[in-house]
Write a structure and sequence with these properties.
The chain has about 325 residues and is α/β, with parallel strands linked by helices. It has 6 helices and 11 strands. The two termini are about 15 Å apart.
Length: about 325
């Protein structure tokens, strides 16, 4: 979250601290879908920023007719129920989804000594849980993507992006169609480039596609709604595990040793392009909070234009640079 002008300073951070200094801290009127594991919605750093559905209260009835009974905070597509947080054995369930949620929108000014803060101090997070104990399926990922498109269409919620810190499987026309349906409704699909770097180099997504980040969304021919994200270290190096691609990976963001919220009211340091992606998703929400009515294309263009040239990403990403939300 640091920037050149924060204390402590780090030029390779997302510069969120500089945005906060300009009183750009987000808005509850901006919504983000977290397509992942579930979210511990009772976490003291997240509880105020997780959606409570006013259109379908907990009464055993599908009040808004969207096919999901009592989707109070979102939906668990892995288990087909409304329980977006399953907990379970510590560390086994919903840590990942809770971690990325904290990077997007952990609350500010909490009393806990371990407390973290997200790119947005204020935002509304909705869970589209499709990853469970045994992973997830493309069919359920499609349902999750369409769920957010329907929420925006049905209720007019200002859903600006979904965070997709996951990967696997081959090309799916059905999933691309779902992403395009979201893109046509001005929802960005922000995706992790992948962690292929067991050799410390990472995989070239230009040569071998990594889905879903390699999808090229056309959104009715107007813009590409997919933003693919690589990871960098605190020293500005491309993280050794991070995939890259001069034409298929768009931008870099902090992804090594990221401290954020995890299940059971805990905090953990994780590394991965999964951790870089929510910095960019958080940036999309932050921009939307200060530019009311901005289209998804305008938000995407702002994110791409923000990129600070970074040697380790030169020739490795479309922008050749790293995220900078200071002007958002």
């Amino acid at each position: 979250m640091y920037g050149d002008a924060t204390s402590p300073a780090n030029q390779f951070g997302s510069q969120a601290g500089e945005a906060w200094a300009a009183n750009h801290t987000g808005s509850k009127n901006v919504y983000v879908g977290v397509i992942d594991e579930g979210i511990q919605y009772t976490h003291p750093d997240l509880d105020a920023n997780v959606w409570v559905n006013p259109f379908d209260p907990a009464d055993g009835v599908d009040n808004d007719g969207n096919g999901y009974v009592d989707d109070i905070r979102g939906w668990d597509f892995a288990n087909n129920d409304n329980t977006i947080y399953d907990g379970g054995t510590r560390g086994s369930l919903d840590d990942h989804g809770t971690h990325v949620s904290g990077t997007i929108g952990a609350e500010a000014n909490n009393s806990s000594s371990e407390s973290v803060v997200g790119v947005n101090w204020n935002v509304t997070l909705i869970s589209g849980k499709f990853l469970g104990r045994n992973g997830g399926t493309t069919a359920n990922a499609i349902k999750a993507v369409d769920y957010f498109t329907d929420l925006k269409t049905r209720h007019g919620l200002n859903i600006v992006a979904t965070n997709n810190s996951w990967g696997g499987g081959g090309f799916s026309q059905a999933l691309l169609d779902a992403i395009n349906r979201g893109g046509a409704k001005n929802i960005l699909f922000i995706a992790a480039a992948g962690n292929g770097g067991s050799d410390g180099v990472g995989d070239d997504n230009d040569a071998t596609a990594s889905y879903p980040s390699n999808y090229q969304c056309t959104a009715n021919g107007t813009y590409d709604c997919v933003i693919a994200v690589a990871a960098i270290t605190k020293d500005g190096l491309k993280s050794g595990f991070s995939n890259f691609g001069a034409t298929t990976v768009d931008i870099g963001a902090p992804g090594s040793g990221v401290w954020s919220t995890t299940a059971f009211n805990t905090y953990s340091s994780y590394s991965g392009t999964s951790m870089a992606t929510p910095h960019v998703t958080g940036g999309a929400a932050l921009y939307a909070s200060t530019h009311a009515g901005a289209s998804a294309k305008q938000i995407r263009d702002a994110i791409m234009a923000s990129a600070v040239p970074t040697a380790s990403l030169n020739g490795k990403t479309v922008t050749g640079g790293r995220l900078n939300v200071s002007g958002f």
